[in-house]
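Fold this: Circularly permuted type 2 ATP-grasp protein
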Amino acid sequence: MMKLMPQLNPKGWDEMFSNEGVRDSYAQVLQTLQNLNPESLNDKQIQASDLFMNQGITFTVYSDNNQGIERIFPFDIIPRIITKAEWSEVETGIKQRLKALNLFLEDVYNGQHIIKDGIIPASLVASCPHYIQEVHGIKVPHNIHVHIAGIDLIRGAKGEFYVLEDNLRCPSGVSYMLENREITKRIFPDMLTSNKVSMVGNYPMIFHNILVSLSPRNVPNPNVVLLTPGVYNSAYYEHTFLARQMGIPLVEGRDLVVNNNKVYMKTTSGLQQVDVIYRRLDDEYLDPLVFKPESTLGVPGLISAYRHGNVALVNAVGNGVADDKAVYAYVPDMIKYYLNEEPILKNVPTYQMENREERELVFADMENMVIKETNGSGGYGMIMGNKATQEELENGKTAILANPRNFIAQPIIQLSTVPCLIDGQLKLRHVDLRPYALCGPNGVEIVPGGLTRVALTEGSLVVNSSQGGGSKDTWIIK
């Protein structure tokens, strides 16, 4: 029988345990785990790893010499549980946030009223590398710019949720959310039913319906494709998985051609017009005639077809201006400006390094700060002040002073913890949560779950898979 005597982190929130003992939401799961001996639990962890291996569920880590190393995505079999009441707050908060972010994107690429009214500095938008002037004024279907968002959430010391990041360009990881659930069904078939866990498996159907609804042509069966950079992309497994799940063709740039401002797919029976492209390709690689001339991944003429309204791109081009980490600090102001509402989900306090007073405050307390590049991702280029050497802190200050617009700082927040099966024992590890929100003509829909990412290294607060993180199945219990 497995016993767990946790040493709770006094600075953080533990999802399974409180000072009074196990939380009600976890009582049944913990009982099931404790009824298993360590060998049985270990066998289930091995079974899960084998299933991931056999199905080729992988991601790619890039080393310092830019060599890609393909790895099986680490999966911990102990679920992360969120109650229906907690989820209701998350769901309502994300819907509010995305409504405001979509209005911001529509505004910033058209009338720019939020800038004219002095809510957001014009210089902040103008200096954003992902503000794409070339798509200014393009009319997108239903004025929706964000069709899929992966909003990263963390929990503070009292269990309250904070938004850490808004991922509005090509958010990844949803395939792991779906595969984690399938693996859990295999290794704990009875636990899902007995705990009344909400379903996530209808995500591909919901997303496919939204993609179809965006077709510029009024035809019974619009042609929808998934555009991938190809087999060497770190998320290629996910591209193939989602295309298969939605029953749409997986294409590369060379499979598409633009003729008379319309996009066509090359097939054995001739050219077929494409109506909607779910692209997993960054903006700058989409069209060599507009962006990087040397790009062989995109489609020459694609932006012209997009501008003429003959093809829908998901997500819209230019969304990066809204998930720039310096712009992130203004999202609560966007909610108040566009919706006249108070934010339901709070931001993590954020210091702009362009602001001299805020910069000096951060420099005086760098050991308690995390420094992030405003357009970085994957945990790369991040400085965790409590783990950094004096030399790394000094190098960070030098980089900030050289280009303050490129950095923000946030106080280090102790992420919540959930027990994980580590070397045959249950140990507490830090987690975050990425729910996936889908925005269509009928509003925002969020499948009840998400990708719980785990910092598998003891004491680490960095959950990114590229930095050695793993994941858990996320249960929303009814």
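The mean pLDDT is 91. The radius of gyration is 23 Å.
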